[in-house]
Amino acid sequence: MSGDNPIRIGLLSCTNIVRKLSRAINLSPNATISALATTTTSSIEEAKSFAESNNFPPNTKIHSSYESLLEDPDVDAVYLPIPASLHVEWAVRAAWQGKHILLDKPVALNVSEFDQIVEACEVNGVQFMDGTQWMHNPRTAKFMDFIKDFEIKTVHSCFSFAANENFLKHDIRVKAGLDGLGALGDTGWYTIQAALVANNFELPKTVTALPGPVLNDAGIVLSCGALFDWEEDGITATIYCSFLANLTMEITAIGAKGTVSVHDFVIPYRETEAAFTTSTRGCLSEHKVMTELPQEACMVIEFARLVGEVKNRGAKPDGFWLSFSRKTQLLVDAVKESIDNNLEPVILSGR
Amino acid sequence: MSGDNPIRIGLLSCTNIVRKLSRAINLSPNATISALATTTTSSIEEAKSFAESNNFPPNTKIHSSYESLLEDPDVDAVYLPIPASLHVEWAVRAAWQGKHILLDKPVALNVSEFDQIVEACEVNGVQFMDGTQWMHNPRTAKFMDFIKDFEIKTVHSCFSFAANENFLKHDIRVKAGLDGLGALGDTGWYTIQAALVANNFELPKTVTALPGPVLNDAGIVLSCGALFDWEEDGITATIYCSFLANLTMEITAIGAKGTVSVHDFVIPYRETEAAFTTSTRGCLSEHKVMTELPQEACMVIEFARLVGEVKNRGAKPDGFWLSFSRKTQLLVDAVKESIDNNLEPVILSGR
To answer: Which intervals hold domain GFO/IDH/MocA-like oxidoreductase (chains A, B) (predicted)?
Structure first.
């Protein structure tokens, strides 16, 4: 495996998140940046300068369109940091070009759109992963081990940050035509994943938005809460996501036999060390997980490993990530549906 | 004030909680134990031995009935660690004997019972306080100061412990005839107070029990969650209380300008130091509050101080504690009503 060439990743667009991800790719021994596509908003010259200032390999190809990058035979996989409204089009196109896909959250504007991506990935045998980094922090696997043993009864997770006025007016995450799911598709995505992680990735039976969601004039969610109910198991979760409240990134998972608390689950306050707390039988323990690489590099390494299995060893793509993203998107949709439907519970069975 | 004699407290019954409170009274310079009343379950001899082994003052009078203690002119105030079903009778009697009252939570089986206590206290000019100790930990005042500045948007609080089989069969907190409010009146009491504390003691507009409450065969709540909604302010709180989940004592209060987290709000893990965390603008601070005395002694000192104001300086009783207990009881009742009414929201206006 170590003899394999690094997986060659093409990046669509020159946004800030690409800066972070390109650093992560540079830190990943099994991946490399091979191409960058400009959009109408940046020229070839700007893209070259972006590539240089972010330490892209000197031979990185600059494409003047997404199409051209997707046709490049020197690209194994693509990272798509584009607005959610464009995901279905470009992820499906990428899959049909045989490119493996790392896709930002929310993965689509709704699950039926995402199902088109799922189908394209499955038909073309490409590996999919959504770009949610916290799942790849080694801490997450560690606290999931505790959660498995704790017989979880209830989970509360929240992710909020206080966006400034400029963000609330202009960011793509508050625009109906772009990332139309607002805080729910952004910070809410993480809290929903946390609820799924704490419940062994099982979908709840019902989803009910909590009173008090805040929407902007375009109907985009700026802040909301929701309740997930697993019914016969007596397990519940509450989530809270917001662009209007102070930075908070909490998971509290309480079980019959123990409690797990994480206070910075989305992005650890320190890049080289991530902590969480467990308590069992009145005994409190703080666990520190050392992380040699930032979590976004851990994600790239795992993505490239899976792509390598497909490319070099003819393995089938690992379907876990498609399934996890689909469940998350389904819950995003259900919370939105409950908000739109006067906070009525949404029953998930059969979805 | 320092020249005043200590407030003389009479204790009704010899339960375990009396052990803890008698230690607290012994630690309080402005209070002393002057009398102990036995119940039918313990003899005078047993009461004497209880008093001795818990370092009661040697001249503590032993009464063979509650009535007799309430008539004792050497008793200024009483502590009533008796089942909630007996609160209305004995608190009202105590008030009519002019005794100031420290009453365990839940203060009654419902708010209409509690209103009889309120009336008796007001008519007789006696000081009332419920025996919820965490409110008196100096930490609580400290984090309330932060909460005031943070423009709170949402609060989550939980208090659970995993009761053993014996407790779940025999404890008065799971018996319909005794403390009939179960986990809701016990651990839930604290979580409700936390929600009120975080919202400047304002009652929410609606209360909705969350799905999945667990009740025993007698209909007593063993575990439940609830949502409080302040409506026009867009503020919500969720609570979770349980006898069936691992010991957890969390408050997370998230505001536009900051977040307060407390991980052991009910009983700090350490008696001499209590911590909480704030975050504002991405900056995390841990605050440690040194506590010379355990929080139950802080409570006794404050109670005795208020009683002293009435007794020695002719002050009017401080009505804050009656009002806070009443609000808490009202919310306990509302959660129970919502549970009994198929999780329908309960509108509090006018109550």
So the answer is: 151-260
Domains and CATH numbers, chain B: 7-133+296-318 (3.40.50.720), 135-293+329-347 (3.30.360.10)
User: Are B242 and A214 within 8 A, CB to CB?
Assistant: no
CA distance B238 to A158: 12
* pLDDT < 70 regions, chain A: 1-2, 40-41
Residue B164: closest CA among A281, A28, A333: A281
Angle at which helix B295-313 crosses helix B16-27, to 10 degrees, equals: 70
DSSP B206: E
* Spatial separation of the C-alpha atoms in residues B332 and B91, rounded to whole Å: 19
| Tens digits of residue pLDDT in B9-59 | 999 987 778 888 999 999 999 999 999 998 766 788 888 998 999 999 999
Nearest to A227 among B211, B261, B279 (CB): B211
Q: Above 50 in pLDDT, residue B1? A: no
In B91-188, beta strands by DSSP E = 100-103, 128-130, 152-162
- Rounded distance, CA B72 to CA B63, Å? 9
Cis geometry, peptide bond prior to residue B106 (ω within 30 degrees of 0): yes
Q: How far apart are CA B92 and CA B118, in angstroms?
A: 9
What is the mean pLDDT of the segment spanning B241-252? 96
Minimal Cα–Cα distance from A33 to chain B, Å?
32
Nearest CB neighbour to B153, from listed A210, A231, A242 = A242
pLDDT digits (tens, 9 = 90+) for B89-128: 999 999 999 999 999 999 999 999 999 999 999 999 999 9
Q: CA-nearest residue of chain B to A150?
A: B246
**Pairwise CB contact (< 8 Å): B154 & A150:** no
- Quick check: B239 and B196 in contact, CB under 8 A? no
Alpha helices (H) along chain A: 16-27, 44-53, 66-70, 87-96, 111-124, 138-149, 165-170, 182-185, 187-198, 295-313, 320-340
Chain-chain contact of B154 with A277 (C-beta, under 8 angstroms):
no
Which candidate from A212, A229, A284 shows the least CB-CB separation from B234?
A: A212
Identify any residues that bridge with A102 across adjacent strands, giving them in sequence order. Answer: A79, A129
B-chain residues within 8 Å CB-CB of A252? 156, 158, 248, 250, 252
Task: Supply the Cα-derived Rg of chain A in whole angstroms.
Answer: 20
